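Predict the assembly for these three chains.
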Amino acid sequence: MSEPGALIEVHHLTHVYHAGTPQEVRAVSDVCLTVRRAEFLALVGGNGSGKSTLAKHLNALLLPTEGRVLVDGLDTRDPQALWEIRRKVGMVFQNPDNQIVATVVEEDVAFGPENLGLPPEEIRLRVEEALRAVGMLDYRRREPHLLSGGQKQRVAIAGVLAMRPQCLVLDEATTMLDPEGRREVLQTAHRLREQEGIAVVHITHNMEEAAQADRVVVLHQGRVALEGTPHEVFRDLPRLRSLQLDLPEVAELSWCLRRRGVPLQGTPLDPAELASQLLRVRGVVA
Amino acid sequence: MELLRSLTIGQYVPRASPVHRLDPRTKILATTVLLAVVFLARDFRGLGVFGAFVAVAVALSQIPAGFVLRGLRPVWFLLLLTLLLQVFFGGSSGGTVLWKLGPLVATREGVVQGLFVTARLVLLVVSTSLLTYTTSPVELADGMERLLAPFRRVGVPAHELAMMMTIALRFIPTLVEETEKIMKAQMARGAELDTGGPLRRARALVPILVPLFVSAFRRAEELALAMEARGYRGGEGRTRMKQLRYRVQDAVAGAVVVGASLLVLWVDRT
Amino acid sequence: MVCEGLVHVYLRGTPFEAVALRGVDLVVRRGECLGLVGPTGSGKSTLVQHFNGLLRPTEGRVVVDGVEVRPGSPAVRDVRRKVGLLFQYPEHQLFEATVFDDVAFGPRNLGLDPEEVAERVRESLQWVGLDPDRFGSRSPFSLSGGEMRRVAIAGVLAMRPQVLILDEPTAGLDPAGRREILARIRELHRKARLTVVLISHSMDDVARLCQRVVVLHQGRVFLDAPVREAFAQADRLRGIGLDVPRATDVLLRLRAAGLPVRCDRLTAEEACEEIVRVLQGGQGWSSSGA
């Protein structure tokens, strides 16, 4: 049943809100998904696709109505495993303000380890380590309300890192940020994946960001509609449009060109890739 | 409106004085003791010694005297009222009459009593202000939590109270910013927030308060989720990164406060 | 005609003094769609809050429709009617018990009579694509995020402004929501002939909607040009931390490698046409209808 290299396994997950009432909503239906160790997975979908609901199952903030979610072998339904699961899978949320608890940055990062009951010296060590990993060590004694959105999210990531997780879930963590903030957060996430081997699940509806992932899973109305590498997934523009999504602008351009007969290989997703392919087509050595 | 943002909460004035560096628990306990003493003093001699002690403490804390006096501004009306009440009604029946104003009779005893009570009030305000000037809100919350911790057995939710206070403090600047934003948005739609009588102004607050409350509830929900995601399950089993430690200075300060209190009471009773 | 000459604007007086605008001269012409871009902290929000009298210039003047704008003066009421300002995440300002009442807040503040108010509310809701009969009596808080945002926009439209300033109207929306809002803004600009000022971080959005772009940087006007000219200056824009529309980026790279493509194409469709044109003009590729 278990795939080697699988960190989180979602088996036939269904989640129904307000079951049995007139407001009953089936947010997720029969979703099967695997998050592999140290992979960068993008989870995309429009509003109502169920991506946020699915995200909250990864760290047992929600429990399945049907199906099972296993985190490193632990079942999310097991009350004994709850806190270990939340240590292994850390989550950063959409609103940068509404997850910072303390009045000073380093104290907020300490919140997680404090909950784990670690000795003060160990906590201090981890806080420093975590802040350094996200590039915010110089801000350790700052008051959080003075930080920019991107900085706040990095502090939130540090708060998760201090618990030494195996997976970092970014639940639309870049949606409310400006381009610079988004860059900061994504660079941090990619670096953590490369250097620390932490898996990253990036939930977003920004296609440009999704294009940088190892794998993309597209949700639509609570089901998995598409799955694959970014190149595979962004191949079909009309299909994505029907799923309420956009293509990254470059992919749209590539698609348009292919339709006009330009012989491109696959669907280039970023400007550099597309430009070099076009130059090759033209016969110019790029 | 920008002034809203520059409000410092609790009037904490960061300095590197010996008073600032004391453990917050020492300061809280000291203030409690001093408050008790100020009410036990019965005449000007005791109060005088007390006043001298407070003046020294203020000097040590490097808080400018003018600042402290300005802190009395919010209560000037109360002080005046107290004084007048004592002057006209304080003296018990009889006593030397100083002058009459219709049914109001000012007696010398009343004046003396009035000045005494007013002076006591002033010292009361200054003593407690000293606590908040020299102790940051976070330290206060920590101090209170540690002091109340032993009472958890009898049901005092020390941890929860401290957590509430910290979160409230953390969000005050954020909420202030949001209020500003909401005010501007409603003003852009023609709301007028600074005209009209009190009833009109009160009604004009609804478009500000409702969104603020809605947003506050939403924040609370999201924050609770984020806290749970980081393993929060109440105060049981939690450790703290910051440790409060009593040091020599605290013992010295404690001794000084006790000593001064005894001196006040002794001067008072002899 | 929203006209603004010689605006030197500073916000000062406290220990937290920060110069937000350092001498901005800007003219917004009637009927145009202007894109206002710049890195965070460049002063965009500060600037637009002068247009409807929410902020007072420390130096310089703001003139709207021939009348100088000064907060506190009676003229301000009129300006707030003419210049509608929609803040970021406008759904956070909703407060009334029904959608109808919330949209009516603006017109009621203008002192209009109930029939006029009701008409404006209906019209505004229709403009944003919400059926007044279905949505009018619902609580704004029972709506989805996108719907709430549209109610907020209707609330500003109900004042029948001549100018509409939008601060990041697509912030936080999913692709479908973004497309929807941008389409409506385009309609308001074209059909209702509103003057539009669009603050955005998305160069692609600005490229699609606006004719002119003003770039702010550290409180000054860095660039003020028609949209195609502005985005052709990729190096200058990148130098201050901004980017160009991605389609333009591809064209610039091709040009740098020697291909004679025009770089003033801003959208995927335009870039596609241009690339095809240039490729067909030379050899190395024949139209095989792949």
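Chain B has two domains: 1-135+241-270, 159-239. The longest strand of chain B covers residues 97-101.
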